[in-house]
Amino acid sequence: MKDKKMHSKVADDWGKALFDRGKISWEKAPDEVWSALEREIARQPKPRKYTFSSQILPWAAAAVVVVLLGLFGLVSSYTKSVHSLPGEHLQVALPDGSIVDLNADSKLEYYPLKWKFVRKVKLEGEAYFKVKKGKQFDVVSEHGTTRVLGTSFTIYARDDQYRVTCLTGKVAVTAGNSQQVQLLPNNHVELVNRKLVVKEMFNTDVATSWREGHFYFSGRPLKEVIDEIERQYAVTIKLEPALSNRNFASNFSKKYSVEEVLDFVCKPMNLKFVKQSENVYLIVEKS
Amino acid sequence: MDLSPEEFKKLFEANFAPLRNYLFFRSGDTELATDIAQDTFLKLWEKQPLLNPKTVKGLLYKMANDLFITHYRKQQRSFQFFSAYRFNGTAHSPADEMEFNELKKSFEKALERMPEKQRTVYLMSRVDHLKYSEIALMTGISVKAVEKRMNKALAFLQANLNTNEG
Question: What is the mean pLDDT of residues A216-236?
């Protein structure tokens, strides 16, 4: 017993020897505890039962609310997006039968699930709209919003430009510093230095000819023409910045090849184009 | 399954003592053990959960453990096991008695210092003579874990029981 270290078996044996001779002394005997419990039970004879309605129903109700909220969120925010690539024109049929023709490199977004209540689309690029008569129809772009009830019109919304041409019906355009104009057929409005400028008796062909593959430009900067050629033919055309604002007034047709078109555009302006690689061109001054 | 008062009494008679002992092994405090055991049964009656005879014991211990955690952790008292644990028996001789007292003192010290988890398992086994499977059910751990704790407890005793006092 004077050993410093012990084998654990010895320690265990000691423990056993110790506990063989003992018991716990309680202040309260089990009977006492039971009496106290009996009194408590008598006070609450009908304990609250955990039934379906008290346990599961609140959770089921909460779950239903969550699901409904989720569905509501989904219906409000679910968008369908249509994107036309350079070189392609697309037509979109909206849930109520309204039609949108998208020019190349344009994007249209709409909310199909709530179309019955709200007719709203987002447009980046250029499109022709034929809207079925009904609730008000909104087209929202970065620099302007156009609202109609049922009519046909075109919108050009690229870079800092916003142009709307009314073909039939009536169109309300909001842009710039909350300026608003109403357009009648053959009216056209565009942002010039952030102000809405209206042109009545507008040659609407200019706004719609792209749908047939013709591209009209009357007094537009060369850069805009070149950008459109890029979009329609899915090529890259580099333009020296100095040349960007040269004025261009003519047209081209998609039935011609890109090089024919470039030739046609460059010649009258004393410019020439150089092919740098497949689908990449550069326009320079004819020296 | 609804709990009738008779059934509840049967449940009490079968489980109160072992449950209270278990709580005593954990805390070394008889008053606390009694209170928590009593509260557990009361809670069981109040909750009247859908009782399955097979699982009611496990439920009882789970509720007791939960109550223990809330109440016991608040009071970090030292383990005064031997103030409530009494020994029977008369010593055979004064020498025996002295030896016995020395042993008891060593044990008290060792038990006090032993980690709670190991100690609880050790006492349940050596005082109440519970099987490892029963201990597992009550404490909510696996049988393997019980074995591990038991081995650690014995190793702890080995290292800490030192009769070369003084």
Answer: 89
Give residue ranges of A with CB < 8 Å to any B CB: 1-8, 10-12, 14-19, 21-28, 30, 33-34, 36-38, 40-41, 44, 47-50
Give, in order, the Cα–Cα distances in Å from B70 to each of B62, B75, B76, B124, B135.
13, 10, 12, 22, 21
Residue A274 phi/psi, 5-degree rounding, is -125, 135
Query: With DSSP H G I counted as helix, E B as strand and the rest as coil, what are the percentages for chain B, rounded to 5?
Result: 70, 0, 25
- The verdict on ipTM greater than 0.90 is no
Beta pairing class for A137-141 and A119-130? parallel
- Encode pLDDT of A84-137 as tens digits: 998 889 999 999 999 999 999 999 999 998 898 899 999 999 999 999 988 899
Residue of A nearest to B152 (CA): A8
Pick A27's closest partner by Cβ from B21, B30, B85.
B30
Alpha-carbon distance of B60 to B65, in angstroms, equals: 9
CB atoms B88 and A2 under 8 Å:
no
